[in-house]
Amino acid sequence: MEEDERARGVEVLFTKVAWINWSSLRWYRRRGFTVAAPGETFPIYTACGETGLIDLNDGHALAYKPMQPGVSIQRHSPAGTSFLYLSSLPADSKNRRLLINQPL
């Protein structure tokens, strides 16, 4: 399924998983999905404007996976809020920081 979606130009896959279902959450994490924290936003920008997916803290987690090569999902936490976003900047996976000074 992932290869078909990638070939169609899909940028992000997302799913909703029950927080109490630890085996499913682990399965998604091992396959490259980033799980949103309760209340965390994932902004989406389209030609029609901005919208977003928000984890509603309803007992389910939203999980996202980038589909295009060289793209990652990053977490940003300014002033006590947190959101996820797509980034094509290289990331230091050990420290989960963007490497802005690296050549693209």
What this model shows, in words?
This protein is mainly beta. Helices cover 14% and strands 40% of the residues. The chain contains 2 helices and 9 strands, in the order αβαββββββββ. It has helices at 2-7, 22-30, and strands at 12-18, 34-35, 41-46, 49-54, 60-66, 72-76, 83-87, 91-92, 97-98. The strands form 4 sheets. It has a 3-stranded antiparallel beta sheet with strand order 1-5-2, with helices on one face. β3 (41-46) and β4 form a beta hairpin. The relative contact order is 0.21.
Mean pLDDT: 80
Q: How many strands appear in the DSSP assignment?
A: 9
- The secondary structure category is mainly beta
Instruction: Give the uncertain stretches in residue-range form.
Output: 96-104
Question: Biggest sheet: strands side by side, in what order?
Answer: 1-5-2
Could you give the order of the helices and strands?
A: HEHEEEEEEEE
Question: What is the 3D shape?
Answer: globular
| Total number of helices | 2
End-to-end C-alpha gap: 29 Å
What is the percentage of strand-forming residues? 35-45%
Characterize the main sheet: 3 strands, antiparallel
Give structural attributes.
single chain, 104 residues, mainly beta, three-stranded antiparallel β-sheet, 2 helices, globular
